[in-house]
Amino acid sequence: MNYESSFGGDAITARSEDLYGSDVDQDAKKKRRNTIIGVVIAIALLIAAGVYFFGGDKDAAAGEGAQAGAGGTDSQAPAVTVIVPGSGSVERVINATGTLAARREMPIGIAGEGGQVIRVLVQPGDWVKTGQVLAIIDQDVQTQQARSLAAQIQVNQADAVLAQNELDRALQLVDRGFISKADVDRRRATRDAANARVEIARAQLREAQARNGRLNIRAPESGLVLERNVEPGQVVGAGTGVLFRMAARGEMELRAQMSEADLANLSVGVRAEVRPVGAGRTFTGQVWQLAPVINETSRQGIARIALGYDKALRPGGFASAAVISGSSQSPVLPESAVLSDDKGSYVYVVGKDNKVERRNVTTGTVTPRGIAIASGITGKERVVLYAGGFLNPGETVRPQMQGAKAG
User: Fold this and answer.
1) β strands within 169-299, DSSP E
2) Where are the alpha helices (DSSP H) in 54-139?
3) Is the pLDDT of residue 32 over 50?
4) Where exactly are the structural domains of the chain?
5) What are phi and psi of 386, to 5 degrees?
6) Which of 16, 181, 210, 362 lies 20 to 30 angstroms, CA to CA, from 127?
7) In this predicted model, what pLDDT tens digit does every residue of 89-130 receive, in sequence order?
8) What pTM was estimated for this model as a whole?
């Protein structure tokens, strides 16, 4: 009885342990299966993302991700987009900055003896013509002096007429013997001296009139008034200094600072595009003079770029310039294709075995089409366009020409 009870209890206990043990195993198997499924899905997503990033389209990426999730091949070469840039004409551009100024700046001071300024007739920014009066000087004293000289001419003319009449009478009497020839000669000399005094008085009057004409400040040439440094009531003279500044014919220039090497590659007459700060647009000019000397401290010289008048070109302002120094035949690549590291600039080229090869290049001018390559490639190579930074030399890829659909 006891043995049966004991045996029956042990059997029930063993059966219970088998049931609980099988449930634990099933839970563990489910967890392992879920883990494996999650890993497979993650790998599929990574493969799909890699294919999309390396140049494949979304459909191809989704297809490859599905294949990977379904147990496809794990070692598939990444697809990359490539271009064959060829070679084209690229303008050599020298970039520089400088200061705007009048091409021919004219300082204007007092030309006459000076005096008190009565009126100033122009303002900065006004256009003036050659000989136009800029400021009027008080001329009351000089005008009276001129009138005195004019009156002196009339006095001398009267003396000259009297001397001539006396000479005429003497000539009538000399034949009758009433006066001597010596008296006639004296009267002739008196007549000549009177005529000479008339000419002297006339010359003095013309001199006074010329001085009076120089009292007013006039424009020596047509152009644009830049500065006004005189006001009514001011007394001006020879030592007063510059009263006005003008730009002859309104012509402007950019005095661009350039290195010795850049100046050596320039010539007079080349085209330049100038962009003043704040103007929002560019102005076309040309180099009209290159500096004959180089600054010893900065090792730079000045290229003077001639510009026509425009109100946006203000002397003293800052501007940048792109000077076209010539053209050359070079490949042009988008910026995404050109990489750089501590060794310099480089690109990735896909060889005949579809293996990536690094090519060190020398970059040139940056154009709206991209970066010109001065050396390193000929333009006939297949150059990786995107994601070159994620490739390694010798890696096998699946090249796809830009614009072509994935197979």
Assistant:
1) 217-218, 223-228, 235-236, 244-248, 252-259, 271-276, 283-290
2) 58-69
3) yes
4) 2-76, 80-87+331-401, 97-103+251-325, 106-137+216-249, 140-211
5) -125, 155
6) 210
7) 777 788 899 999 999 999 998 887 888 899 999 999 999 999
8) 0.54
Please, are residues 254 and 100 in contact by the beta-carbon 8 Å criterion?
A: yes
- Mean pLDDT over the full length of the chain: 81
- Please tell me the distance from the alpha carbon of residue 226 to that of residue 106, in angstroms, as a whole number: 10
- In 278-333, the DSSP E strands lie at 283-290, 300-307, 318-330, 332-333
For the record, the structure tokens of 126 come out as 């006004």
pLDDT confidence tier of residue 50, bands split at 50, 70 and 90: low
Task: State residue 303's pLDDT score.
Answer: 94
Q: Was domain 106-137+216-249 assigned CATH 3.40.50.1820?
A: no
d(CA 123, CA 157): 47
Q: How far apart are CA 231 and CA 117, in angstroms?
A: 7
Residues in CB range of 116: below 8 A, 6 or more apart: 137, 138, 233, 234, 235, 236
Name the class of domain 80-87+331-401.
Answer: mainly beta
Q: Quick check: 8 pLDDT over 60?
A: no
